[in-house]
Amino acid sequence: MYEDVVRRPWDTQSQKFGAPVRRRAESIRKLPSTNELWSRPPPELAELRTLESEKDHALARAWVEGFELGDVPKGACEVGYSRSSGPGGQHVNKTNSKASLRCDLGPALGVWLPRFVLAPLSKSPYYHPNPPSLLVNSQETRSSMTNLETAQRKLYEAIFNAAKSVIVGETTQETKDRIAANLKAAKARLKVAKQKRSAFKADKNKRNWE
């Protein structure tokens, strides 16, 4: 069962929610809410707007590695169907097979999405700033349900890739050893350079006294 959402349909050309209807009304419904428990970020990560410390990145890595398609709450998205355009025969032009999925980021941030994800998501082609939301369309097939599943996958991938883009990978022991060796070599070179400068100054002062 779907829950009807009381709002104005969006324009089929601009794909903006709340725009006046120019051609035809479209069906806008909300995906059914469920009581299932989805994977939420830990409280210490949920409110972070930026990742600064190694601990922050470690928490973010653990969350994103466990983040799955099913962790996007169904009740957080609105779906609309409209007629597709482009190739595909008369079927796509006569049925509402195009699926549009809208996810309002306002209620999501700090609940099932960490706040640090907003900044990289704002660079996504699916991002709309007023209000902050993701709008994903799919019209690849003649099946509205298949297109809806594709839109859901696109939404998940947009969130996943945005989060991964700002998380620093865990430093391996090999990398740590290489960095330590480079620092040790740099300190050794600096020490030798200081010794040479000291020897040069001492020799210069000695010649001045002679």
TrEMBL record:
Record-level GO BP terms: mitochondrial translational termination
Signal peptide location: none
A GO term, aspect molecular function: translation release factor activity, codon nonspecific
Keyword Coiled coil: yes
Stretches the record annotates as Disordered: 1-23
Domain of life: Eukaryota
Keyword match Coiled coil: yes
Keywords in alphabetical order: Coiled coil
Gene Ontology annotations for the cellular component aspect, listed alphabetically: mitochondrial large ribosomal subunit
Domain (Prokaryotic-type class I peptide chain release factors) ranges: 72-201
Biased composition regions of type Basic and acidic residues, renumbered to the chain: 1-10
Coiled coil: 176-203
Family: Belongs to the prokaryotic/mitochondrial release factor family.
Name by which UniProt lists this protein: Prokaryotic-type class I peptide chain release factors domain-containing protein
Organism, as annotated: Naematelia encephala
